[in-house]
Design brief:
The chain is an alpha/beta fold and 230 residues long. It folds into 2 domains: 2-95 and 190-229, ATPase, nucleotide binding domain (Nucleotidyltransferase, domain 5); 103-188, Nucleotidyltransferase, domain 5 (2-Layer Sandwich), CATH 3.30.420. It has helices spanning 36-49, 69-86, 95-101, 144-152, 166-173, 192-204, 223-229; strands at 2-7, 12-19, 22-30, 59-63, 89-93, 109-117, 120-129, 132-142, 158-161, 180-182. The longest helix is centred in the middle third of the chain and has 18 residues, at 69-86.
Length: 230
Amino acid sequence: MKVLGFDTATNWCSIGLIDGEELLGEWTLRSKMTQLTRLIPGIKMLLESREIFLSDIKGLSVTSGPGSFTGVRLGLVTAKTLSQVTGMDLIEINSLEAMVFQLPLREGTVIPLIDARKNEIYAGFYRWQENRIIKLEESNLFKPGELASKLNNLNEHCYFTGHGLQNYKNNIIKDLTIPFTWIADFYGIIRGSTVAYMGYSKLMAGEKNSYLDILPLYIRPPDAKVRRET
């Protein structure tokens, strides 16, 4: 089963194509250009490089947030449109869970982080158990000091993963009293192939979403909405 997966929830754009458990190709880029100018050309380039048509693809997997408001919205609109036009099965993937999937650790709590700007971060709380990701509680928005205080109450080793979070890192770890490991930035980039494989696994388990039902996971109201209400 061929599945196309992509992530635009951060300032990276990554597109992956798999056939079952085989990686057919992946395209990942970070630049100052908007996600709008990256995503569609990237999909086109990846498919053409493998001589694969949209009609050959069974499933489409996309991150639904949290992350950049504009990036999440663009990814979902693109995925919904492709699903509606081609009939591809659609699967949504939580951005933070995708980051955890890339770190199959056997112990401790995994804390995926995404920059929410305004000196705040999106944080999730997960653990691997019997080859499955267990969500310990709902993702939320934190100031660095607030997150450190919360984690100190866990009293166990925590593994942080994220990309481009150096400023937040210093403000978090200075208040930590628990053992921790800060994973290298490289592992915090959400890979399109990861999103594709997570979608493939859900499709094989009989799960799929309607393009009418998927909504962006913002956690914090979009800035444009806040400005209109004030």
